[in-house]
Amino acid sequence: MIRxxxxxxEITLSPIRKLAPLAEAAQRKGVHVHFLNIGxxxxxxxxxxxxxxxxxxxxxxxxxxxxxxxxxxTKLVEYYSKFSIGxxxxxxIITSGGSEAILIGFLVCLNPGDEVLVPEPFYANYISFAKAxxxxxxxxxxxxxxxxxxxxxxxxxxxxxxxxxxxxxxxPGNPTGKIYSRDExxxxxxxxxxxxxxxxxxxxxxxxxxxxxxxFSVMQLEGVEDNVILIDSISKxxxxxxxxxxxxxxxxxxxIETALKFAQARLSPPTYGQIAGEAALDVKQEYFDSVKNExxxxxxxxCEALSKMKGVxxxxxxxAFYIMAKLPVDSADKxxxxxxxxxxxxxxxxxxxxxxxxxxxxxxxxQEVRMAYVLNQTALSKAMVCLEIALEQYPGKTL
Amino acid sequence: MIRxxxxxxEITLSPIRKLAPLAEAAQRKGVHVHFLNIGxxxxxxxxxxxxxxxxxxxxxxxxxxxxxxxxxxTKLVEYYSKFSIGxxxxxxIITSGGSEAILIGFLVCLNPGDEVLVPEPFYANYISFAKAxxxxxxxxxxxxxxxxxxxxxxxxxxxxxxxxxxxxxxxPGNPTGKIYSRDExxxxxxxxxxxxxxxxxxxxxxxxxxxxxxxFSVMQLEGVEDNVILIDSISKxxxxxxxxxxxxxxxxxxxIETALKFAQARLSPPTYGQIAGEAALDVKQEYFDSVKNExxxxxxxxCEALSKMKGVxxxxxxxAFYIMAKLPVDSADKxxxxxxxxxxxxxxxxxxxxxxxxxxxxxxxxQEVRMAYVLNQTALSKAMVCLEIALEQYPGKTL
Lengths: 399, 399
Hints:
Chain A is an alpha/beta fold. The first copy, chain A, has two domains: about 5-45 and about 285-395, Aspartate Aminotransferase, domain 1 (Alpha-Beta Complex), CATH 3.90.1150.10; about 55-280, Aspartate Aminotransferase, domain 2. Chain A contains 13 helices and 13 strands. The first copy, chain A, starts with 5 loop residues before the first helix and ends in a 6-residue tail after the last helix. In chain A, about 55% of the residues are buried. The mean pLDDT of chain A is about 95. At the A-B interface, α1, α3, α5, α6 and α9 of A face α1, α3, α5, α6 and α9 of B.
């Protein structure tokens, strides 16, 4: 009998995909499903990016440099300088999405058996990338009732062992919408310095900070240049998830040199995606302003609707386009399934991501759901009507 | 002191990239370098593929299905049926190049410490993907003097231990140009069946088989459906290396199901590349015929030139677009460097890939070089003139 690997047996399905077959079944029955489960924005991709690809005059669709086109990296240096992040082109490796940046980062920094500390709830795919590197994710619980604030550093210390090689953050946070303060990051700085750990930060939602929040990047921390690795992506920033363009950024020469060897093994990042990504960097500030305004309106629709629903607890997001909510139900997992299999309101229902998929600690997040506000305002309002009525009708309601 | 991982320290630079700085230095001095070191074809990408991207009417550049667009996979089923390979769309996962297919395949099939048996010389990047999976490549030597024929199965048996989890082939071969016979593959079939091993075959050069050679795929082997994993790519097939589109194919449900979980973690393969790749499948047989004729002419230019050079041994390739040659020099590594740093003929020189980078056994391939015949016939002829004169002038010549 031929067998797959142990890591293959252990790897789990992404929580946002688990219920997909039920949603497809509902759609086949003619039900209109409002998809709030996945962070695929509906925002139009900037035309300047789409046109750059249309107008590209290629004869041979060649490999690019393994670190990505130099012209693209040069413009990225300029982009980051607007956020007071000083870089050189040699600090940047273009990857196939932020996903590949995380995977290569883990391969470069983690030995088999090493652990990465991540505040939970967290982006569940980090688990798969850690597993690919024969390492693992260890979580530090944060609570929806505390607006997902980081625990004090003394608590972090309790979770650190010989195996702890890195701390990883998503800032602004998926799934929480939480933005970490400069003060929180400065404390983590001291921690990673003290313990010789890497500090990974996934900052792909940088452009989506609301209510005058100013994003502070780990790259702005002084004195931990060798510890910090920035994961970035153009997927959400310019609504071009399909370009598959991300970046791995570090000022640690040995990290970049080694990451480049892994990058050379896989030859190069996608050429068309790079053309689109480079052109997108010319997008005007007005684009971000208008997209941000749109997300704020959507967030407010959700928050207003949720605040009227009895027994619902949520943390108002300051960034990204997700909201976690705790529902008065026996099990969010069962509730999310029931929404797809049983519930209908005017031929509609809503698809949510069960919250426990974003926690590793058993029992946490069992009543929580993640919603991505990536639909237009009308659809979101309808989705909230569905949710409100569903909470009243659900047989397993706890109120 | 913060440290990178052990695998990071061990990973080596691809042999085709090692001398790149020397080539760049030569170019800066105005030397015309004929690049035979890298398999980047100069063949124009089919216009039908480039136009499909130009004409794509996208508003939002979205994620695709994690296994790749269904329409693309449906057309791939049809493509493979022409080679008597019967598949369903569920057997196919579209990846970011053949590279990602190998990586995911290794992650799914190999445990840390496992070994993959590969006949050497071999495509050196397999080492990096194995290392990424905390596994390793173990090589079985084959010799240029024997036209790189596989050793008898009894020899394979000597290399198999408890750790051996898979055999991997590149067929037609990079760097050898060797095409394995049906008989050779049937013998390997019995071997992998006996030892419950996976059989990986990298068949990306399928369309480049010369002299009436008929490619026989591992997917045509009967009775080892659960063992066989096909790695494929459109990079060379349609001269679109920059599309970053490959495929992981298997009839083993558990392999595909697990591979899809890794594929879901990284979200999706590039959207533009898939559009180009799907359109390329409509390329007419005449395209391949004409490309094949061109490669045959190029191969013949190389073989004719090499056969006139005193002391040069080579194996005439039956497929792909590489040729290995053993040169009368003290060290091919030194010779390749010297070509870039010291040798000039009419302001020209030639860049070759040192052969030892394609062997793991210490001492093997020290006098060999790999040449990729990816330049036009005129350039190739000039490159051969350079090589012939260089072999006469090289201070470390052994003849």
